[in-house]
Every structure is written in C-alpha cells, then in structure tokens.
C-alpha cells in the first residue's frame, strides 16, 4: 500500500511539473474541456451551414435554455466527482424539488415560500446522502441509487402521482423565472452563468474547494493533513442536491406543470456532461467550464438529430460513445504522464 501511495504521489508531482513547464498554449491544448468546446463550435457551424433552422434566434434560444437545466445540475455533479464520489439521485431530487414547489404554490403560498421549501427538501436529501456516505462509509453508488428511488417515491406520495399545473397567485412570476427572458437571454441561462461563476470561484479560491480536490486526489492523505473529510463530503452532496433543487424550480416554471416523471434518467446526461468535460471519475480532476460545454455539446447533438430528421433514439448511442471516448482519452493521457 505505501508503494501505491508513493507511485500516486510521484505521478501527481510529475503532472504538476509538466503543467509548470508547459507554455500557456500547451496547457490549453492539453485540456479536454478545450477540445469539447472546439467540437461544440464545429458542430454549431456545421449545423448552421447544413440547415436553415439551426441558426435562427428562436432555435438558439431553445438550445441554450434546454441545456441550462442539465448544466446547472452538472455543476453539483462536478463537485461530487472531483471529491471522488458519484450522485445518481440528482434527477429524482430535481423532481422532488419541483413537486414541493408546485404543491406549496398550489396551496396559495407565494413563490418565495415554495422555492425555500423546495430547496430545503433538496438539501435534506443531500444531507442524508452525505451522512450515509461519510459516516457509515456506504459506497456513494449504493446510497445515491437508493435515494434515486426514495426521492421520486416521495414526490409521488406528496402529489398522489398527479400532475400539478396551477401555481396560485405567483404563477406568472414562476413562469417568467423559468420560461421568460431578460435582455434576450433565457432566464435559466442567466441563472446558469451566475451559478457557474460562483461555483468556479469557490472551487479555485476557497479552502473548501481545495479540500474537495484534495479528498478526490488522495483521501487518506487528506485525512493525515487534518482536513475534515466527513464534513466536506456531506457538504459536497448537499451542494449537488442544491443545484438539482434550483434546476427543479426553474424547470417547473419553464414547463408550466410538474409530473412525477420529471428529471427521469437525467442523471445519465448530467454525468455524461461532466465526464465529457474532463472530470475524472476516480476523483481529483474536473472543471466548471468543462461540465458546461459538455452539457452544451449534448444538447447540440440532440438538436441536430431533430433538425436533420434523424431518429432521436440515436441520442443515447452518441452520448454513450462520447462517455467511453472521454474516459479512454483520460486514461491514455494518464498513461502518457506516468511514462514521463
């Protein structure tokens, strides 16, 4: 075991030296997120040339709004994956958040109360996930897979498995929040921009962000350096649930109704966006920018299939292939760094 730790440490030191000795352009070209961004730009340009409908203002508005929901949830997933974990419950947490909001507003309460209760429910789910993972040491895959079913079941029980489409006196405000626009930009996109900037700053410039990376890179070393690993892990899963909860509130406003199948299988797209953007499923690596452009690429692919008249059933094949390729490239890069 000490030999393994030494090897890991040596690889980390070599990687750090390589990063310092590379030019800024070299570092940029070595980033997976950069190439995903290039791929998304090429796809957009190709679609604009191949179709008359992609580059229209309405279609671009729809594309950016649609990917914003996945990207917001991906912000939380990025933090979880950087810490070395995984959260399969985000789609169900989004549904539960939207349902709590809908039930509260349907009962006549204002948007502020509904949103507060929705986010509180999300944070509670994240707290439970974190406690079970950090203190009882149950694998994240098992805990969040179980919570995937529990949270959606809770949404069904609360709503009696019925669709809610009346939101009381603040209905128009909710619809504007999720489906409206400010300065010609969809409100969910503005929310994504703000949340992405905040998340990026937190990860880069705060002690908490440093601790998240440290835990993902080497949890045992993080413990030895005095990091409160259990508390950080709990906060990580609460952060992920909070992002899913915010996306749930926004999506309820966009759709104008909430059903218990909202967010179903969303965790797959979210994990795909995060991994495609360069996050390492083994922990210790990931960027906010990468996850956002990963989500954008997935939405561009989905939109292109529709515009080109290709069956959307192929979407899963494309996304799955991108996940495998992204992980394969990450492994190849890791082997090359270890050789040097």
How would you sum up this structure, described in words?
With 340 residues, the chain is mainly α. It has one domain (31-339): ABC transporter involved in vitamin B12 uptake, BtuC (Orthogonal Bundle), CATH 1.10.3470. Helices cover 76% and strands 1% of the residues. It is built from 15 helices and 2 strands. The protein has helices at 2-21, 24-29, 32-50, 57-82, 90-106, 111-134, 140-159, 171-179, 187-205, 207-217, 219-224, 229-255, 266-276, 288-307, 315-339; strands spanning 181-182, 185-186. It has a two-stranded antiparallel sheet with strand order 1-2. A hairpin with a 2-residue loop joins strand 1 (181-182) and strand 2. The protein is globular. The chain starts with a helix and ends with a helix. The model is unreliable at 1-21 (pLDDT under 50).
